[in-house]
Design brief:
Length: about 550
């Protein structure tokens, strides 16, 4: 009752959000809330469409029409004409985001109908419009969907290219949901390439993200994927443990289609292990549910694998019927992988039942599909030509992205902090060094000034008092054992003269002056010329 009331309120709000403009044309001011509407039971799609049809053709109306289309997928029947109208309006008003989103939706819808070639064309067309759009989040979803479509056609390298691009963009957006989707897509592509260790790495990264977000549905999907990896690695206990984890989540969510898919995977695991009766038990659990939900890809796989189990159990007539049923469904949806599986199973069946000619014919049919990327008469071969798929590249190692979300961001911040601190230290060192040099220069300048002051004082004293006190000074100098020639040298030192100047003044050699200077220093017990000048001044 509360949900019905909610629907009524939403409809009233939507009606009130339209205002009259003229000629009875209405303009929407607020788009439909898809998240609120999708949880409502028995929603009236026609009523919502009638509301939107009264409104002006603008971006909000396009958004509403896309929402109505999405709701129709769940509530049935699917309203493809509504999406067509949204695309038409988007093109009319040059709304790039609307065009891209409509093409993306059409691509997903085509994939659900197993029209994989059509799906890839629509998604690639959408890319060109997303490049002119602001909706990066939807662009990432489109890239992931394109990867899925290529993977369904077994074009793993094309799929990987778009998955990696989606992963890079979703990392920039910090969109963990899209990151997990891309990681799972990459892992599944590596499984098809039989690179199981690579696949395991990506599935574990996806599982870590889902656990951080506490997304049980995503965790269940990752558990199932890891179970498949361990199956191919022949680590059956680990495979079974992961599948059971996945199954418990699906049972808790009461998701019958997921339960059937997981039972199918468990059946395949027991088949690889060689326990065919137990494998058959799980396949038979999955079969009726897959028929009900019309999951043709899994249905084809289940029919064929039931036949494979029956071959090993020597139930040849039942096996033939089931394998042919699986083969026909695989051909209907152009599933190359399932076609190859069915032909190989038929060849084994005919070989076991001694129908060797049929065994050879079916083996040759399997070889045709296996050795050529696609049947020459099929649309899938056209797709292979368009993307110029190169089989020799399948053995090349795909470079793994270094995905460290929050840890990586933290490391970057720490690096920037360390660099900033280092820059500050360098600046401080340069400033400190300049300041130290400046202080040193000032100190030297001050010393020079003091020397000059002392020398001036000495000169003044010598000029004024030297004659009067010459006898006294000479007498005082004689106490230190200084000769008259050494006294003359000391006088010139006190006047600030250099050794060469003194030599020139006294008409003696430079070495003679140096000898007199050394004797003066020794006799006066001084270390340098300044101390000698000071001591000479004190003798006055």
């Amino acid at each position: 009752m509360n949900k019905k009331l909610l629907v009524l309120i939403i409809l009233l709000v939507s009606l009130n959000s339209c205002r009259e403009i003229g000629n009875n044309t209405l303009s929407n001011t607020q788009a439909f809330d898809y998240k609120a509407l999708k949880t409502t039971k028995n929603i009236n799609i026609d009523s919502l469409y009638q509301i939107s049809s009264l409104c002006k053709e603008d971006t909000i109306k396009v958004s509403d029409l896309i929402t109505i289309f999405r709701l129709s997928i769940k509530n049935k029947p699917v309203r493809n004409e509504v999406l067509d109208e949204a695309l038409q309006i988007s093109r009319k008003i040059n709304y790039e985001t609307g065009i891209a989103n409509c093409l993306n939706r059409k691509g997903v819808n085509a994939r659900y109908q197993h029209e994989y070639l059509k799906s890839t064309k629509l998604h690639k067309e959408a890319i060109e419009h997303y490049k002119k759009s602001w909706d990066i989040a939807s662009y990432v979803k489109n890239l992931n969907s394109l990867g899925v479509a290529y993977r369904k056609m077994n074009l793993e390298e094309e799929a990987l290219k778009y998955y990696y691009e989606a992963l890079k963009l979703s990392e920039n957006l910090d969109d963990t949901k899209s990151m997990a989707m891309a990681l799972n897509g990459i892992g599944n592509a590596f499984i098809n390439l039989e690179k199981y260790n690579e696949a395991k790495k990506y599935f574990e990264l996806a599982l870590n993200l889902e656990e951080l977000n506490n997304n049980l549905k995503g965790m269940g999907y990752d558990y199932s994927n890891l179970g498949e990896v361990y199956m191919f690695k022949k680590q059956y206990d680990s495979s079974y443990a992961y599948h059971i984890k996945s199954l418990k989540i699906a049972e808790k969510a009461r998701s019958k289609d997921n339960i059937a898919i997981i039972n199918n995977n468990i059946g395949l695991m027991f088949q690889h292990k060689g326990e065919y009766e137990r494998s058959l038990e799980y396949f038979n659990k999955a079969l009726p549910v897959l028929k009900k939900f019309r999951s043709k890809r899994y249905l084809s796989n289940t029919f064929t694998n039931i036949g494979i189990d029956q071959i090993h159990l020597k139930q040849y007539n039942k096996a033939e019927n089931n394998i042919k049923e699986g083969l026909q469904i695989a051909k209907d949806i152009s599933s190359r992988e399932n076609i190859i599986l069915a032909y190989k199973a038929l060849s084994d069946l005919y070989n076991h039942s001694n129908r060797f000619e049929k065994a050879l014919d079916t083996y040759e049919m399997m070889t045709v599909y296996k050795d050529s990327m696609f049947n020459l008469q099929s649309e899938n071969h056209i797709a292979a030509l368009e993307v110029k798929y190169e089989t020799e590249k399948k053995d090349q190692r795909i470079e793994q992205l270094n995905l460290e979300t929050k840890v990586q961001k933290s490391n970057i911040i720490n690096q920037f902090f360390a660099i900033g601190l280092l820059v500050l230290l360098v600046i401080f060192f340069i400033f400190y060094n300049k300041l130290r040099l400046k202080n040193k220069t000032l100190e030297i300048e001050d010393m020079r000034n003091n020397i000059e002051e002392y020398l001036v004082q000495i000169s003044r004293l010598e000029s004024d008092d030297c004659r009067k006190n010459k006898i006294d000074i000479t007498a005082k100098l004689e106490k230190y054992g200084i000769s008259s020639r050494e006294a003359e040298v000391l006088k010139y030192i006190s006047q600030g003269m250099k050794n060469q100047e003194i030599a020139n003044k006294m008409f003696v050699s430079l070495s003679t002056v140096k000898t007199h200077t050394k004797n003066i220093f020794d006799k006066l017990d001084v270390r340098n010329r300044i101390e000698a000048a000071r001591k000479a001044q004190g003798l006055h």
